Amino acid sequence: QVQLQQWGAGLLKPSETLSLTCAVYGGSFSGYYWNWIRQPPGKGLEWIGEINHSGRTNYNPSLKSRVTISVDTSKNQFSLKMTSVTAADTAVYYCATDYHGYYHGMDVWGQGTTVTVSS
Amino acid sequence: QSALTQPASVSGSPGQSITISCTGTSSDFGGYNYVSWYQQHPGKAPKLMIYDVSARPSGVSNRFSGSKSGNTASLTISGLQAEDEADYYCSSYTSSSRYVFGTGTKVTVL
Q1: How much is the pLDDT for B7?
Q2: Cβ pair A103:B98 closer than 8 A
Q3: A50, B10, B67, B101: which sits with the fewest CB atoms below 10 Å from its CB?
Q4: Is the pLDDT of residue A37 over 80?
């Protein structure tokens, strides 16, 4: 069954660039949109953006100026970069997808990566 | 792209039914039925419980049901059990805004 495994730096200083990668195992990479979602401590979920295997992206307008999502189809991986981070970007970051055709209900999630921004 | 509005908390006794509301604007739902509900236990990734307003993914208990009327979607948990204690989030997908999540509801089993 398809699984998402994610990794990246967990501690950043203000103004640095956040970089996370999510790998897709046990399933097809093509034909799906791959998402990044984040959750600040004690708060709700926020959609960051998505990418498909062709590299077509959509971003949350509130983050669009700082976010880039890219794809590496040779490795079945997609990545998130967020520039100029501040303490407000401290959160658990998840990768996720609607893999089984659940009409944009995301049924496959990564394990989450905790990112802390602190000087 | 504002969050959909959910009650901060809902509680119920074992065996009871509870309902969580999720309210947005007409543009939040965009005339689509792409409303999903997620359950999240502490320290865990969200789990899809309902999609397409009222459909259940394979393996999800039929104690969970969803509905939508106008600009308000609802999740009902019947026969409340201790394991249902968790945070719940609604989500709407539209072609223009893509995904918007709700503010989240903490369900407490008394």
Answers
A1: 98
A2: no
A3: B67
A4: yes
Tell whether the torsion through CA atoms of B73, B97, A99 and B43 is positive or negative: negative
User: Which residues in A lie closer than 8 A to residue B102 (C-beta atoms)?
Assistant: 44
Record the tokens describing residue B4, joined without a space: 């959909």
> CA of A113: which chain B residue's CA is closest?
B45
- Under an 8 A CB cutoff, do A62 and B48 touch? no
Section A59-73 average pLDDT: 96
Q: What is the pLDDT of residue B45?
A: 98
Which of B57, B100, B102 is closest, CB to CB, to A102?
B57
Does the CB of A89 have a partner CB in chain B at under 8 Å?
A: no
**Contact assessment for residue A63 and residue A49, using Cβ atoms and an 8 Å cutoff:** yes
- Judged against a pLDDT cut of 90, whether residue B104 lies above it is answered with yes
Q: What gap in Å lies between CA A39 and CA A78, rounded to an integer?
A: 19
Burial class (CB in 10 A: 0-12, 13-18, 19+), B43: exposed
* pLDDT at B68 > cutoff 80: yes
